[in-house]
Specification:
Layout: H1 4-18, E1 23-28, E2 45-52, E3 55-62, E4 65-72, E5 77-81, E6 89-95, E7 100-105, E8 111-115, H2 120-123, H3 134-143, H4 148-153, H5 163-172, H6 186-211, E9 246-250, E10 253-257
Antiparallel strand pairs: 1-6, 2-3, 3-4, 4-8, 5-7, 6-7, 9-10
The protein binds a DNA duplex through helix 5.
Length: 263
DNA sequence: ATCGGTACCTGCACGC
DNA sequence: TGCGTGCAGGTACCGA
């Protein structure tokens, strides 16, 4: 379930429950080797919970040494606090205070890693959408000659966007997913930047409001209340012009757009 | 640099 | 009821 807004919501919801807790024990379901060996997190205390693109970063400290537990949810990963283990529970983090953090992942595309420092691989990712300015985004976008859709999905270009919000942002900016980025006028690229910020902001707000009623913070809230205008609405009328929304494949990803609004 | 295809996994909706 | 097909929000790797 993991694009930037979902990960942000999870981080905000879990943070207050995790910060200050000590990890007493970590067990991984055997013979799962699909996630990294993070049993070394035992004995560390959680000092912070942050988001880095679509990654969840738990900052850890044990006496003088610090470390990070990196969690990427893949397509179906979820963190569950004080929930019931199930057939797809792959990791158990026993915390002090009797709390239990579970990692579930049906498709097992998620990954975990315990590191001293933030790996180069992560530091090399593109800027966070909320940290880049409009001018910077326009310059970066037009400096590339990639189709707009795969460029937005490329985490080395911008970190955090996924298939849903890429489609939604392109729709709001009225840009065809196959448009070559270098050929997009500056004003249009600026509109895309604003559309990205708007879509992500709205989704985070929806996530925040839907999670506020839950005592136990978990990642099972799905798509929030965020209403897609094009994503997975193939054949439905465009909310702007009523033309039928189309689905095409771009860079191996299902891509939804309005053939009349986006050219 | 960029793109398409493949691979990694399980579950679900669909048509027959 | 079963079975095959295609699809699903993630990334990594390959060859062209």
């Amino acid at each position: 379930m993991p694009e930037l807004p979902e990960v942000e919501t999870i981080v905000r919801a879990l943070g207050p429950h995790l910060v200050g807790r000590r990890i007493k024990r970590v067990t991984l379901r055997q013979p799962r080797i699909l996630i990294g060996d993070v049993t070394g997190a035992r004995g560390f205390s959680i000092t912070g919970v942050q988001r880095w693109g679509k990654h969840i970063v738990l900052d850890l400290r044990r006496r003088a040494s610090t470390a990070h537990l990196l969690i990427h949810l893949g397509m179906t990963g979820q963190l569950l606090l004080d929930g019931e283990p199930g057939p797809h529970t792959h990791a158990f983090f026993y915390l002090d205070g009797g709390r239990l953090l579970l990692y579930n992942d049906i498709r097992q595309f998620g990954r975990m890693e315990l590191t001293r420092e933030l790996p180069v691989r992560l530091r090399r990712l593109g800027p966070d959408p909320f940290q880049v300015t409009e001018a910077e985004f326009v310059a970066l976008f037009r400096a590339r000659s990639s189709m707009a859709k795969p460029l937005l999905l490329n985490q080395l270009f911008l970190r955090g966007l996924g298939n849903i919000y890429a489609d939604e942002a392109l729709f709001r900016a009225r840009i065809h997913p196959r448009t070559i980025s270098a050929r997009v006028r500056p004003a249009k690229a600026a509109a895309l930047y604003r559309a990205i910020i708007k879509v992500l902001t709205e989704a985070i707000e929806d996530g925040g409001s839907s999670i506020s009623d839950y005592v136990s913070s978990d990642g099972s809230l799905g798509y929030f209340q965020f209403r897609h205008q094009v994503y997975q609405r193939t054949g439905s009328p465009c909310p702007v012009c009523s033309a039928a929304i189309r689905r095409i494949v771009v860079a191996s990803r299902g891509t939804h757009f309005c053939p009349r609004c986006q050219r």
